[in-house]
């Protein structure tokens, strides 16, 4: 046959994704319906364990340092247990010898489950793009947060760590007038870009220090207006909680209101006292035309106001005990608490005691000290 | 997290059990909503076996209450344990979705 008579088959790049050989074997760790982590299993296989040098490290006390091995043989996955303490399971069956892990089956190690998916590169790239978009959204939220104030009569510090799925926390503070200083923290229910976008929308309203026909120095009116502006039916079913306070340096009075939000705490200078600041108001956006109420407190010299989201204390500790807000307040009152870097130190303490699976919400802690 | 939905002679009863946390809500929200809303009748939610409610769980309950309200039906809750009741009170959710101590009181409230 002459060379010019040969048939040429051209496969366009888009069609390559449909070719079996282009697919990759993936282990996917999911939280709810979102993939939290994906690991592609290559020719060398992967070792799963709790610490390095495992290829896939999962922070779970039920997982051994070297727990199991997943190998790729003839385009199929096989699992072998590495004498782990708590065993390796495939679809509920304990692995006692090298066992096949079919596509769609679930590998359980400790408290974590990994699903075997067979993904095209396009699917993985799309998912990675989504992760990158979430990272960008997290960066944007972070860019809206105010810088710490390290000098002057009102000093602030904060620690903000968005969850892997990005929650809807945001906060702000600053001067409302020569004598008034405002601070607030919002927590949109839910995760992902939608919750973050909603938090940004609320933040942008508050950052302007202006709401329609509303005295921004009166927390009850601010919450009432936000409730009318952000009804959940008009905002994709999203609602949020808020804590909003205004400090008057002339009188040292702090007016505040919480909407569906737990208390903020006013800590005495020596941390011996922790006064909860809470007003019983409904969640913002849950129901129109609700009445909101505010309260006031006198701020003693040197006191610190601590605002935080529920992600800081809605955890289960490593003993399996559900934390309450009181457990977290006890950390705020620790003897060495009142030192620079306090918010980061408190985060470190929470993450040290929390079951890693349950520290799955945004962590937002803001502390404002009033000389 | 489990959901059991039954019909008590014209009143829907939704029995929830387990932790209504973020991961679990993602798994059961559509089952709960699709089980309760199409019936379009007064609904009581049994919380006696719920050990924890996260904000997404509150959103699930609020969404169902508002969806039923549009259809002229009410949603109430009963049997909340003290830790769950604390969450409900902190968020003032009970101002929107009433909470009762017993199933009988809940049925009586929606039947009144």
Task: Note the overall shape of chain A.
Answer: elongated
Q: Which structural class matches the secondary elements of chain A?
A: alpha+beta
* CATH class identity of chain B: Alpha Beta
Measured distance between first and last alpha carbons of chain B: 31 Å
Low-confidence parts of chain A lasting 5 or more residues at pLDDT below 50?
1-20
Strand content of chain A: 25-35%
Strand order of the largest sheet of chain B: 1-2-3-4-5
CATH superfamily membership of chain B, which one? STAS domain
SSE series of chain B: EEHEHEHEH
Please explain how this structure is put together.
The complex is a heterodimer of chains A (about 375) and B (about 110). Chain A is an alpha+beta fold. Chain A has helices at about 15, 120-145, 195-205, 220-230, 325-330, 340-355, and strands at about 25-30, 35-40, 45-50, 55, 70-75, 75-80, 90, 95, 100, 105-110, 110-120, 155-160, 170-175, 180-190, 240-250, 255-260, 265, 275, 295-300, 305-310, 365-370. By secondary structure, chain B is α/β, with parallel strands linked by helices. Classes of the chains: A alpha+beta (about 375), B alpha/beta (about 110).
Secondary structure elements and pairings:
The complex is a heterodimer of chains A (371) and B (112).
Chain A: H1 13-16, E1 24-31, E2 34-40, E3 46-49, E4 56-57, E5 68-73, E6 76-81, E7 88-90, E8 93-94, E9 99-100, E10 106-109, E11 112-119, H2 121-144, E12 154-161, E13 168-175, E14 180-188, H3 193-207, H4 219-229, E15 240-248, E16 253-259, E17 264-267, E18 274-277, E19 295-298, E20 303-308, H5 325-332, H6 342-353, E21 363-370
Parallel strand pairs in A: 3-4
Antiparallel strand pairs in A: 1-2, 1-11, 3-5, 5-6, 6-9, 7-8, 7-10, 10-11, 12-21, 13-14, 14-15, 15-16, 16-19, 17-18, 17-20, 20-21
Helix pairs in contact in A: 2-3
Chain B: E1 2-8, E2 11-20, H1 22-36, E3 43-53, H2 55-70, E4 75-78, H3 82-90, E5 99-100, H4 103-111
Parallel strand pairs in B: 2-3, 3-4, 4-5
Antiparallel strand pairs in B: 1-2
């Amino acid at each position: 046959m002459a060379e010019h008579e040969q048939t040429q088959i051209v496969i366009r790049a888009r069609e390559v994704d449909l070719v079996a050989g282009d697919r990759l074997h993936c282990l996917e760790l999911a939280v709810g319906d979102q993939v939290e982590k994906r690991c592609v299993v290559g020719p060398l296989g992967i070792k799963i364990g709790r610490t390095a040098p495992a290829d896939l490290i999962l922070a779970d006390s039920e997982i051994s340092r070297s727990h199991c091995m997943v190998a790729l043989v003839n385009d199929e996955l096989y699992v072998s247990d590495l004498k782990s303490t708590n065993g390796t399971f495939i679809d509920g069956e304990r692995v006692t010898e090298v066992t096949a892990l079919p596509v769609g089956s679930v590998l359980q190690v400790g408290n974590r489950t990994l699903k075997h998916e067979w993904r095209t590169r396009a699917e993985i790239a799309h998912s990675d793009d989504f992760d990158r978009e979430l990272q960008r959204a997290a960066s944007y939220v972070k860019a809206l947060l105010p810088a710490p104030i390290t000098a002057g009569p009102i000093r602030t510090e904060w620690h903000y760590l968005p969850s892997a799925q990005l929650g809807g926390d945001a906060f702000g503070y600053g001067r409302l007038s020569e004598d008034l200083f405002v601070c607030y923290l919002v927590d949109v229910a839910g995760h992902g870009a939608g919750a973050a976008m909603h938090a940004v929308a609320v933040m942008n309203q508050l950052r302007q220090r202006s709401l329609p026909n509303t005295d921004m120095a009166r927390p009850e009116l601010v919450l009432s207006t936000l409730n009318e502006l952000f009804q959940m039916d008009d905002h994709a079913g999203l609602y949020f909680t808020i804590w909003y306070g205004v400090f008057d340096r002339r009188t040292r009075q702090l007016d505040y209101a919480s909407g569906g939000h737990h208390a903020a705490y006013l800590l005495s200078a020596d941390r011996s006292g922790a006064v909860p600041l809470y007003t019983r108001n409904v969640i913002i956006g849950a129901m129109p035309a609700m009445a909101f109420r505010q309260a006031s407190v006198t701020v003693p010299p040197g006191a610190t106001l601590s605002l935080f989201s529920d992600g800081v204390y809605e955890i289960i500790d490593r003993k399996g005990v559900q934390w309450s807000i009181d457990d977290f307040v006890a950390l705020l009152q620790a003897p060495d608490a009142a030192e620079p870097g306090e918010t980061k130190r408190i985060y470190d303490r929470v993450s040290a005691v929390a079951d890693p699976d349950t520290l799955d919400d945004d962590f937002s802690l803001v502390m404002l000290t009033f000389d | 997290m489990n959901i059991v939905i039954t019909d008590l002679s014209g009143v829907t009863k939704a029995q929830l059990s387990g932790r209504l946390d973020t991961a679990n809500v993602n798994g059961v929200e559509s089952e709960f909503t699709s089980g309760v809303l199409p019936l379009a009748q007064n609904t009581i939610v049994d919380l006696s076996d719920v050990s924890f409610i996260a904000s997404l769980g509150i959103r699930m309950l609020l969404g169902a209450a508002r969806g039923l309200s549009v259809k002229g039906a009410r949603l109430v809750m009963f049997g909340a344990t003290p830790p769950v009741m604390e969450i409900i009170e902190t968020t003032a959710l009970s101002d929107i979705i009433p909470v009762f101590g017993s199933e009988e009181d809940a049925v009586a409230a929606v039947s009144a």
